[in-house]
Fold this sequence. Notes:
Pfam families: Remorin_C
Largest sheet: 2 strands, antiparallel
Oligomer: single chain
Keywords: Coiled coil
Helix content: over 70%
Number of helices: 2
Protein name: Remorin C-terminal domain-containing protein
Order of helices and strands: HEEH
Organism: Oryza meyeriana var. granulata
Family: Belongs to the remorin family.
Amino acid sequence: MEPQEATIADTAAPATGGEVVKPAGGDAGVVAKTNGPSAPPADKAATPTGSADRDAILAKVELERKLSMIKAWEESEKSKAENKAQKKMSAILSWENTRKAALEAKLRTREEKLEKKKAEYAEKMRNQVAAIHKAAEEKRATVEAKRNEEIIKYEEMAAKHRSKRTTPTKFLSCFGS
C-alpha cells in the first residue's frame, strides 16, 4: 500500500508551502500537513526535493509495475476465456460431427434395406412374370395339342368319308339329304 500512499502524497501537494508528510504508522489515505518549514535534513542525499523526487519515481515505477501486472493478469484471463470457449466450440463441433455421422450411417442402412427390398420385390415380380409366361406357354401347348388332335381326328374322318364316298352328316345340315 506504500505506493498508493506515495501517489497520494505526490499528487496532493499543499498550496500554502507546507510539507506533505507520509504517516509512519501505515495509515492508508491519511495525509498529514505541517505548517512552516521543516527541520533541516541531516544528509544532503535526503533533501526534501531529492526525497520527493525519489518517492515520486518509486511510486511511478510501482504504479507501472502494478499496471503491467494488471495487464498481464487481464491478458491471462482473456486467454483462459478464449481457450475455454475454443474448447467448448471444439466439443460442440465434435458432438455435431458424431451426430451427423450416426444419422448418415442410419440413412445408409435404411437405403440399403430399401434397395434390398426393392431388389427382392423386383425378383418376385420377375418370378411372377416367368410363372405367367410358363402358364401361358402351357395353355398354348394345350390348345395346340388339342388343335392337332382335332385336325388328326377330322383328317381321319375325312379319309373315312372319302373311302366310303359319303357326306358328313353334320356338315352343312341345311343342304342335307
